[in-house]
Each structure stands twice: as C-alpha cells, then as structure tokens.
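note to self — DONT lose this again. spent like an hour looking for the file last time. sequence + predicted structure for the chain T wanted, 660 res
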Amino acid sequence: MKPIGRRDIHLDFHTHGDIPGIGADFDPDEFTLTLTNAHVDSICVFARCHHGYCYYPTTVGTPHPHLARPDLLGDMVTALHGAGIKVGIYTTVVWDELTWQNHPAWRVVKPDGRFVDDGSAGWKWLCMNTAYADWLEEHTREILERYRCDRVFFDIVMPWPDGCCCDDCLAGMKVEGLDAGSAADRRTYGERVRSRFVERFAGIVADHDPTLPAFFNRSWTLTSHPEMTARRDWESYGQMVVESLPSGGWGYNHFPLLAGYFAWRGKDMNACTGRFLRSWGDFGGLKNPVALEYECVRTVAWGVKCDIGDQLHPRGRLEKATYDLVGGAYGLVEQLEPWCLDTEPLAEVGIVVGTGTGPDGLFDGDNRSEEGAMRTCLELQVPFLIVDTADDFDRFRVLLLPDKVMVDDALAKKLARFLAAGGQLIASHRSGLRPDGQAFAPPQWPAVWHGEGEHTTHYLRPLPAAGPDLAEFDYAVYERGGQIVAEDEATTLALSVPPYFERRPQHFCSHAQAPSTGVPSGPAAVRRGAVTHFADPLFRLYKETGHGVYRTLVRNALRVHDPRPLLRTNLPSTAEVTLRRRGEAVLVHILHYVPQRRAGIDIVEDVIPLHGVELCVRMDREVKGAKLVPEGEAIALEMVDGYACVRVPVVSGHAHVVVE
C-alpha cells in the first residue's frame, strides 16, 4: 500500500446549497504555501459532502449550485501534487441530505416505520443495503477515473444503531434466518450489511489501483463479539484512522483506548483530532495551542501519525490563524518523528475486551469497563496494550479481564495455557464466568460464583492482604457486584459488607445510600496463585466515579502479580508514559498536560512542569547510555538490579528519553 502522510489535514467542506461563491477565493499557490509553511505533508480534500453536493463536474451526482470554480476538487488535487503534498479524496456514505430527499426508497427505516428524521437540523440516514450502494459505486468509480490520489476516505460507514427495517433489509434478514422483531438480530444484520459494503468498496478501489489505501470511517467499539469485532473486515482497510476530537464528545480517554487496540496491528495509521475548540464544523472556534500540542505529541508517542481536522470556508481560502496553530504543533511533531514513528510498543500488561453483550444477549457497545482499566494503567504509568480474545497472549506477563469478559471453552483453554506458561490474571465481577453466567470456567479460579449481589450500593472492606496502604474502612461500591465464595487455599483480600437496606422512596436514610451494617457477608476479593478476582465491577466503577480505592486495589494486585514491572517512576497520576522500542533502543515518552473540565468540555491551556523525574526501565541487554531527544543531550544513567535508571531534570509538557 502507498504510505500515508505523517502530518495530515482532514479538510471538511459540508456546505449548504444556499451559500454563494463556493471556492471563489481559492488560490492554488496560496493554498499549498499555507500548508507547506505549517509542516503539512498530506491532506484529505472533498469530492462530495453531507449536504449531498459534489465539488467537481460530475455526471453521476449533483454539483453544488454555486460553484465559482467548476472543478474545485481537480484544482486542489493538481495544486497539491505540484507542491509534493499527498492527496486523499473524501466522500460521504450514510449521510447525504440531497440523496435522502430525492430517493425515499434508499432511506433507513426505523422498526416503528419512521425514517431517521427528527425534523431538527441534523443528518438523515441512508441504507447501504439498497440500490444506493450501486449509485455510490458509480460515484466512486467516477472519482477514481478522473483524479489521481494517494488514498480514499469513505465517511460515515455505519448502520443505524437499532437496525434498519426497509424492504431490502427485511428481505435480507428473512433470508439469513434473523428476526426483524429482535433488536439483537437487527443490529447483527446491520453489521453484516456494513461489512459487505466495506468489502465491496475496498474491492472497487483495489480494482482501480491495488496500492491505493481505502479507509471506511465509523464509530468504533472494542469487542470480542464475533459479529461486531473490528476483525470482521480488518483486511479491507488499507489504512486506519482513529477519529478522536477530545473536546467533541470523545474526551481525552478515547484516543489511548483505541490506540492501545489498533496501533500495533500493522496498519499504516493516523489519529484525527481537530483545530476546533469544540467539535466538527466549529467555525470561529480555535483550540488552545497547548491542547493541540498535547494531542499531537500524544499521538506520535503511541507511534501513530498525526491528522488535524479543519473546515474550509465556503469561499475556499485557508485561515492564517488556523495554520499558524497547526504549524506550531506540526513543527514540534516533525522533530519528534524519528524517535516515535516506525517503532514497536513495549508492554507486558494486556487489557482483554469482552464480548460487549448484556444480560439480555443484546450487544450493548459499552466500553466503560475497558476504559476504566485503560485509565487505571495510564495513571499508574503501567504500559499496556488492548487485546481481544482472538489475540495471542504470549507477549504479556499480566492480563486484566475487566468486569465482563465471559469465557467459553476455547478461551478457557487459552487462559489455562497462559497461566501454565507463567502468566498472571486480574479479573473483576463477571469476568471468568461461562457465557451462561452460572460458574467460572477456568479451573484455576480462586472463587465460586453465587450470583449477583442483593444491593446496588454496598461496601468493600480491604484486609491487610490487599496491601499495607489501604485503611480497614468500609468503602462505598456504587454498583451491584457479584457474590463469591473463596475456593480452598485462596486468600481473602477484601470483604463485602451490605448496607442496612436499599434506598427507596418509603425507606431511606440521610441523603444517599444507607450506611454499612459493619457485618461482612462474604469475600469481595480473593487470590489463589496466579489469579486475583474482584467481585465488584471495579474498572467500570473507576471510570464512572474516580474513587481512588478501586485503582489502589488494582495497583496492589499488579505489584503482587508483576513484582518486576517494565517501568518504575516517581511520576504523579497526571503524567502519561509510553514505552517503545526501535532495534536496540528503548524509547520513553513522558507527557504531562492536565485537562480541566470547563464549560462542559475538557480544556488544556497551561503547561505545568515536573522536576526531578525518576525513571527506571527494566532492561534485558547491555546499556550504553541515555539521552534526551530531540535535544541530543546525554543524561546520567545508573544500572540498579537490572533496571536502567535516569533522572530527567524537567518535563515541560513532554520529554523523551532514549536508552541505548
């Protein structure tokens, strides 16, 4: 496949038909010079937008009625290639207002018979299972035949979450033995339609040029569910993009969660944030420079290429202030790329994603447990990767099974092999149970399952075996947990303590949950050999509440199961570290930017320096020295018990250490 650019711009252009003068101010030389000065080496430009208009002289679609330049797309492509800038071409799929209006038979139909149209200002949905896909094929082939490009970006390639009940989908579900009255079956069929669409259009692009990467943008849920997993059509993707605007609803937890899953799987990959203060299309909203710096440095520290979203003004001129902002971030990224890109991750902790299936069998798309596990590792500076149940576990020393990793016979055998080879497991709540939820599957499990607990909010009392830094206190657990009994020879780490009663309108105490009775009802955490099990959904609880005791319990378990971790450091929980390797060199990337929740979104505005940062990296080979990059400044290194230990005088937002 052709390599994608390292410093990309995703240039949105969703422009209503009433706006005049489209592209009137476009100047090819100014356009490319603005990008070059901002250290941009790649850009994705637009063939067609969510309003349904094309920006070239199409015979398949409808040109925007007020195009001042009849071939705005062609003019951009020619200018960009002339300046040595890689070109991606964008088109939309499920969202297209004009096509939705003109072709009612192509619309998504809800189970109640209504179209996806609430009457407000928002995008309406088309069905990929109708003749719309044939029209899209003509449109795609027209673009590929007319314009030379370096990649193709298909946007909004996803089914309506509750499934489509148009005539084509109803007929298709019947053929495949699925029940249109079942939400689970509708969702399953929608994913099959999407997967077939992706395979079809990847083939169309490959027929034109087998080296041309195609990407199909969607909302990603990390799951081991066989119908919903990203593996289903992974081979059809010529590149990978993680769309993650922290202020636009994704938040700062989203990128490391998805990068932890996708960034080590061999695809050429970039991550798309935005220059916007809020989210896409935020004209006049400009992100703080420190925030964009953080997002871009964080991206390359994961070994991922950068992508910044912008939206072109209808008149076709890039805004100077935007590209001054972009240039500041990309100038720094360009310096860091030699020590970040083309590297491999170092991590001995794997976070296993569950099937994403709720108690009713319906796929719930809920990654809160995985996010809580990721957040726990991030704050503890524990290098991690995220895996599904089809992945090879051999590279890991410890696996975290957060809250709902159900274990069938195949996975039970796989975990048994992992444990027999010296691996360690830390699991919580329903993780480890057979798919029917009745009993734990692996024979090495330290607990017996006795069903869900009686109380929603209850209490957890750590015992000395849980660690010396936890008070013997009844800590609130804000969600229903499981009831377990310790197996023979298992050590009880914590006790579960009920409240006096459930809070009800006619039966309550004070302002929240009733207090602890002080009388334990059974274990809340047990350990036997290489397995620790927490009865409560600690990872989802940590994501939802931030209660520090949950993280401390996991940290102490990690210290038992991994007494010689890859990294030891004195960094605060606000700092992030990634470990990577290139050849014989170990690369340590330290970031310290502190988002604050302001006005409903997370804002990064100031750099708060850290002084006297100590890092010790476990090494399995001879160490020659250490230096800070890109500065090239050597720093003192001492070997202590197999660890290469250095002291970084100051981390001002970010610092990068190479141990050679």
